[in-house]
Each structure stands twice: as structure tokens, then as C-alpha cells.
Amino acid sequence: MSKILEIACFNLESAIIAQEMGADRIELCANYTEGGLTPSFQTIKDVKSKLLIPVHVMIRPRSGSFEYTGNEIETIKQSIRFCNEQNVNGIVFGCLTNHDLIDVKLCIEIISIAKSMSLNFHRAIDECKDFEAAFKTLIDLGFHRVLTSGGKSNAIDGKENIKKIQHKFGNHIKIMPGGGIRSENLNDICSYTKCSEFHSAAILNNYEICDSKEIKKMKQIFLINE
Question: Which CATH number covers residue 212?
Fold first, then answer.
């Protein structure tokens, strides 16, 4: 099975580099240091006009917890409607209750607005009280994939949990390891977890620009694992 490399891009320049270096998809975000927030509408529009590969947009109005207020929920919904208007391929979001459970009610509301876009739940999953139960909930809700570091701070530390989740739920939902993945550890994560999609920012400095050579190296590693 061919592997998919998703690159988290925090600006138009990175998005163009990722496409040129062979990335299969990008996750478009803002604010690398805050873990990725919703990019500006103008950035979304610019990236969609330049890229041919799929674009998934981060829907996260602020950093911090994944429990949102009424005003924040309205901002989330407005962002998703704009993504639909721009023919964005998918959205990336995550919402939890104050008990660290998937906020099913809000997920249902968001899914109804997302319509035909791909549905991706981000690393909020790693904060859930019951990791496996959270995956079952997302499958029931109709999510297409989950970005996870296996309940740990990075995918390397969480690879055992990722492997277990992939074995248990991989036929029902795409499990996409992310969090600290770079060319130096991708081969290990790839061969150990048996996942088919992987997420990386491919950033080797603090300038929010992905590294073209790093992306090329990761794509070459996929060839080894096919």
C-alpha cells in the first residue's frame, strides 16, 4: 500500500514547497508555536488558488483547551462555511467536553456544516480520558481520519499505542501518526505502526517554513517501506 505524506504548512511559501517536493496533502494552519490555529481567510484562498494537491484546513480558533464557548463555536462554523465556499478538500478539528470526552453534540453540528469535506480529528484525541473509546466515538460519527501521537507528547513515545490502535481500528478509520515526526525517525514509525498516512511539519528551524530536503527524504523513506 502506498504511503501518504501530509505536511503541516503555516504559510503559502511552505504550501508551495510541500507540493513541489512531492507531499501528497497539506494541512494548512497558522501559528506553529501554538500548535496550529485557523489560518486567515486570505491565506486559505491564496493556497487553494496555487495548489493542485488536497488542502485540509485547521479549524481551531485559539490555543489551549479544546472546550469552546458559544462565540468560539460560531467562529468555528464561519470558518468551515468559508472553507466550503473555497472548495477546500477537508477540515481538521477537535472538540472535547470538560470531562475530556469527545464533544459529540458539537461534532455533529460541525459535520453537518462540513458537508462533503473530509473530516479529520486532530491531536485533541490524545487528551481524551479513554483513548480507545474516543476512537470508537469518532468512527460512529463518520470521521475519515485521526491525527494522533498515541496519547503521548510525540509519536515516537506513543508508537506502541498507535500500533495497537492501528491494529484495532485501522480498517474503519485512517490512523495518522503525528507529533515530532521527521526523516530521522519516520522509517521506525512507519515500519512499527503499519499506518499508511503520516503527518509532519518538516520544519528544521523556527521560521515556520518547511524544509524541502526534509520532505524529499521522507518521500524516499516511503519507497523503502512499500
Answer: 3.20.20.380
